[in-house]
């Protein structure tokens, strides 16, 4: 675990490097834009569904205001789930830029031999990441609702699920660029790309702790803006340090 702590420290220190700082600011801007768009669309969708369900002024006076309030509350709950999905999808899109910035400074030899991903490949990786995160969190949602009475059970469940998910995602966004010399795997999923190596560079425990740190930061206001880029930078350090 010493390599993990060192990698997190190096990743945090690099947040203030010009190249990484520019990526951080871009990713925050895009994440907020997507988040606002999803929030507005979700509010209108929920309002429409409630109206279609019969909650309108024909039912009783003031139903419209109640519908708006309910939609707002439901949208906030949904956005708590969606935030980490949007954030990780955006950083998956910018993952190559983060990895390149870290490798250019600390691992120049790896940077020279890495495979560059096209815009289409980065977009597919981002959408695939969002899809996996959405599916995993939706599967966990019914169990999280049951655990609401415990106070901390819901948070602990989501933290566990996302720690496992993010640990694998963060490893793969680095490993995909170095996993094999066969360029045909550039279009494959991270799991398919892993076939190009005999074993994953990070152990399950390291992936889990790395993913857990990022997942916990995603739940903290303001820190959640930093978490995806810090995770990508730290994962780059960790994968290269463990691959040596």
Automatic annotation (TrEMBL):
<feature type="transmembrane region" description="Helical">
    <location>
        <begin position="23"/>
        <end position="46"/>
    </location>
</feature>
<feature type="transmembrane region" description="Helical">
    <location>
        <begin position="133"/>
        <end position="166"/>
    </location>
</feature>
<protein>
    <recommendedName>
        <fullName>EI24 domain-containing protein</fullName>
    </recommendedName>
</protein>
<keyword id="KW-0472">Membrane</keyword>
<keyword id="KW-1133">Transmembrane helix</keyword>
<feature type="transmembrane region" description="Helical">
    <location>
        <begin position="58"/>
        <end position="83"/>
    </location>
</feature>
<dbReference type="InterPro" id="IPR059112">
    <property type="entry name" value="CysZ/EI24"/>
</dbReference>
<dbReference type="Pfam" id="PF07264">
    <property type="entry name" value="EI24"/>
</dbReference>
<keyword id="KW-0812">Transmembrane</keyword>
<feature type="transmembrane region" description="Helical">
    <location>
        <begin position="208"/>
        <end position="235"/>
    </location>
</feature>
